[in-house]
Predict the 3D structure of the following.
Amino acid sequence: MKTPPDGTVFIVDDDDDFRASMQWLLESDGLRVTSFNSAQAFLDTYDGSPGCMLLDVRMPDISGLALQQMLLDKGIALPIIVLSGHGDIPMAVTAIKSGAMDFLEKPFDDALLLHRVRLGLRRACKLQQQKRQQEQTRSLYDSLSRREKEVMALVVTGRANREIAEDLGISPKTVEVHRSRVMSKMKAASLPELVTLAATLNS
Amino acid sequence: MAMTQKITAAQHDTLLAELDEARREAERYRLLVEQSTDMISRHTPTPEWTYVDVSPAVEGLLGYKPSEIIGTPGYDLFHPDDADNLVKRAESVSYRGGLYTNVYRYRHRDGHYLWLETTSRTIRDDSGEPVEIICVSRDVTQREQAQRATRRLARVVESSSDMIMFCSPDTLALTYLNEAASITLSSGPNGTIALNLRELFDEHTCNSLLHDGLEHAALHGCWYGSIPLQLPPGRDSRIAEVREIIAHRNPDDNRRVEYYSIIGRDITHKRRAEDAARRQQLELAHMSRLLSVGEMATGLAHEINQPLAAILNYCRGTLRRAEDGRDLSLAQALQAMQLIAGQARRAAEIIKRIRSYVKRTEYQRSTFSINDSCQDVTGFLRQEARDNQIEFHFDLDPTDPELTADRIQVEQVLLNLIRNAIEAYNDCEQGRRTVTIGSRCVEGSIEVAISDCARGVSAEALSQLFDAFFTSKPSGLGMGLAISRTIIESHGGQLWAQSDGHSGTVFRFRLPVARQPDQ
């Protein structure tokens, strides 16, 4: 038996029978499943925990595609597998363009679905890690003083200490001190590492 | 010879008295002749038929004074068609005991013709040679015209397209059939014609409808209605019915019925045309159902896909549990089976609904709840409504009225109207998209209203809405509303639309609750 992956599968579908059957299938693979009968129900209760979403395109009130857009707007990054009753090419294109991981037509091959779901959960895991890392970096960055932040911004653009001293109107010696503090506070071992961290902050 | 012999005075007196008597007698005959309204005339036995003498009645009859006409040829005054009646032994000539009677047209001095009836005798000499012809003529114009009118009436009866039969009151034997009746009644395989009214009906009809009809006519003079005839089935089997019975009663004999006139109508052609029209309408309705199912195919496919996908999920989910060797309890497996069965039923239900909808059916009347039909049809359109974010609202009559009609056809109209209402929102940015389906009982009718709150229909479009091939949809054929109206009207109802042109449209139809007799 496989080890259950981290993360939850979120099913959003207004068809009660279908939702129940999905849960039955996914749970047979040892997955953790939470289901919602509408986009609104999901929005109301989602707590930001990691997972992968199985989303029905056709739903009353808020359609699958609309929910996808709302999640993008809210910055909720969940890998989404869009499900449709029949191959609706324009809809599939829209969904994929908006960042959906996949588009599956009902009824689908269970092995394929489960494979994709696991893929989605792994991606969710990675996203979760990235997010955690970003938060960590953010808190490190927040511990820098105003001057240190200024120095860091210039350092990651590749400028030499002397140039930075000129720009900020301080002595190169002082720049050197700020720079070593930035490196230790941001827990960066090298300049490339600091550049990567800075990039994370901006994403 | 007697005159040369001597006679006695007594004999002389007697002779004088006889002569006197003869004179008086002659005078009486003369008076008789002169005062008779009949015209008495003498003619030469020649083809010219020249007047030798004529009584004064000639003036009243023909407008001539005797002096004007004596010596002129009588032949010239005959109507050209009647001049040679005697020679031709025409129908109007009869002969009895040396007397010919002839009825003919004869010209008046004014130029118009009158009908004369003339009795003539040819006076012959000892050798048998004709000497002269004596005629007595009278004006029979009025009588002749009356007879001609009667003959015309008889012809009207004979050639009427209605079936007309005379029938004796006690035996019900048929004494006369006009041409139309003969043709219709002899349409059986062997061409025999019924001789008795009873043979035209089945026994039950005879004893009920026909009996009552005759009785009513005997009492009131006539009876109107419709009694179907039972004609022998054959290659050219006809459909006919009795519509009227007239009892001809004798006023002098206690108003006893002398005979009945039975008037009927052969409705074969009418019935066939109606049947053809009905078949055509069924065909058209069927076509339109096929078309609308075609148009709804996407939604219907989705509807069927849902339970199929669910079944697959339950199956694979159960198999996986078993394959993995995890504990799959019997209870769990059974539960999955039950869920699968439920989904299979759901799919079958959808298919059944589609099949019964597209089935080619004969016109079938049944009694059903109009509210149920409204609900069923919206079930059919669930997917389409979901795709278009439509919400159905029901405003149904709480008494749950029942309707007697062809259920499939009525639901076809409902489906059509509701789909139209959904499509009305197509080019319309509107948050609340509702389609309201209402039913209510109004004075022996059921009225159904389908309303939308889309942009409405312009007055101009409203007037064309029910024309065939009128459509506002890019993919529509424009037959839906035309067919819907035909269906409703063939059920004795009406279908119409109302719109203010900007905030919505209401389609209403009204159908009689009670069963309408078939026409």
